[in-house]
Amino acid sequence: MKIRDDDLFRYVLRLGDLSLVLGQRLGEWVGHSPALEEDLGLANVALDLIGQARLLLGYAGEIEGRGRDEDQLAFLREQGEYLNPILAEQPNGDFGRTIVRQVLIDAFQLELYERLTTSSDEHLAAVAAKAVKETRYHLRYSGGWLVRLGDGTVESRARVSSALESLWSYTAELFVEDDVDRAMADRGIAPRLADVQKAWSARIDALLAEATLERPLDRPYSWFGKQGTHSEHLGYMLAEMQYMQRTYPDARW
Amino acid sequence: MNAAASGADARIACAWAALDGVEDPEIPALSVVDLGVIRFVTAQPDGCMEVGLSPTYTGCPATEVIQTLVERALAGADVGAFRVRRVLAPAWSSDWITADGRRKLAEYGIVPPDHSSSSLRDLRPGGRPVACPRCHSTDTETVSEFGSTPCKSLLRCRECLEPFEYFKCI
């Protein structure tokens, strides 16, 4: 077991936080979706994401070696200790906006997990091998909806176009390589983010073409969720998510 | 030594028999052995039996229930000391549902999954149409990629108009 490897700890935490935050966001749709089938769909994707987060946060806790388990990491960290890219925490908006956010992240996770299956870190490779199957299915769902909405009615098209335009700039952060990403790639634990970006971009282009949507222009950005600097939205989400554990520490049922 | 070896074999057989009696909590027609989530039963050098258990989906709430049921069944059988180990790699596949399991699924009214190996990289639905379990028509449509449990999707037959479930192929 690798004890107190700070780079690996932060890297695994980033992956886990991405799944956890996105899963929590999708969970907010339960009981509010446009149709029962979509309620089931979004809840199922959320469940897979929370399942992945459990495995990843549990592993992060082991690497850290300070006795924090998956629950402590999920429910007792402050906003600034969360290391998810801030695209994940953006509010759901309407169904179209949720689908656009989902497509962008599903495609990213798919390309990332596919490469992580050959990671030199055996545990991470095992989690990725499991997650990649689920993620493939998620993209099939979200991608299918993007095509239907983009190539749909005037109203649905307008909604997903505007969501795509406003969420696009957050995607840059997914591919910015910092010291942690570089260290992981050098050690053969994680892929180069430039390779992931290339594959992601091709996949997104194909989906956008099918959905008859235009790819927005890349713009300058300054998002640092992976370093713990978040948008104002994460705090509200955590307040709700962590309420029970903070109010009744170690509550069990 | 032969006596010890056959003793271990007997305990392994006994463990498999006990596990065959553990129903999946969501799909009681299937045992956990039919579902393919029991990866191995081995006798360890320390005399302990080790049982490998894989989740179907990482977030499936049934996984913990299954582990509890498995432990209870083994404790009730004559297998001696044992431990259950969670196994992630290689990841569970719907291809591992046994032939018996596939037959039981079909009898229960859930269409068993197609084989996944050829379609692993496919992101678009397609391939062979799923036949209705009641009237066997292939004129069917997907109502939802997701169903009442993480492992199933929801379809409808356009011929007899009945809805039915299809075990997801992963």
- Helical content class of chain B: 25-40%
Give the overall pLDDT of chain A as a whole number.
Answer: 95
Query: What portion of residues of chain A is helical?
Result: 55-70%
Tally of individual helices of chain A: 9
Q: What is Rg of chain A?
A: 18 Å
The amount of beta strand of chain A, in percent, is under 5%
Q: What is the rounded distance between the termini of chain A?
A: 31 Å
What is the molecular shape of chain B?
elongated
Major sheet attributes of chain B: 4 strands, mixed
Global shape of chain A: globular
* DSSP strand count of chain A: 0
Order of helices and strands of chain B: HHEEHEHEEEE
Descriptive account of the structure:
The complex is a heterodimer of chains A (253) and B (170). Chain A has 253 residues and is mostly helical. Chain A has nine helices and no strands. Chain A has helices at residues 6-27, 36-64, 70-75, 95-116, 122-150, 154-168, 179-186, 193-210, 232-247. The model of chain A has no long low-confidence stretch (mean pLDDT 95). Chain B has 170 residues and is an alpha/beta fold. Chain B has helices spanning 2-20, 32-35, 62-76, 99-108; strands spanning 38-43, 49-53, 82-86, 110-111, 140-144, 152-157, 163-167. Chain B is elongated, with a radius of gyration of 18 Å. The relative contact order of chain B is 0.15. At the A-B interface, helix 2 and helix 5 of A face loops of B.
Spell out the key features of this protein:
heterodimer, A: 253 residues, mainly alpha, 0% strand, globular, B: 170 residues, alpha/beta, four-stranded mixed sheet, three-stranded mixed sheet, 4 helices, 7 strands, elongated
Quick overview:
The complex is a heterodimer of chains A (253) and B (170). With 253 residues, chain A is mainly α.
Topology:
The complex is a heterodimer of chains A (253) and B (170).
Chain A: H1 6-27, H2 36-64, H3 70-75, H4 95-116, H5 122-150, H6 154-168, H7 179-186, H8 193-210, H9 232-247
Helix pairs in contact in A: 1-2, 1-7, 2-5, 4-5, 4-6, 4-8
Chain B: H1 2-20, H2 32-35, E1 38-43, E2 49-53, H3 62-76, E3 82-86, H4 99-108, E4 110-111, E5 140-144, E6 152-157, E7 163-167
Parallel strand pairs in B: 2-3, 4-7
Antiparallel strand pairs in B: 1-2, 5-6, 6-7
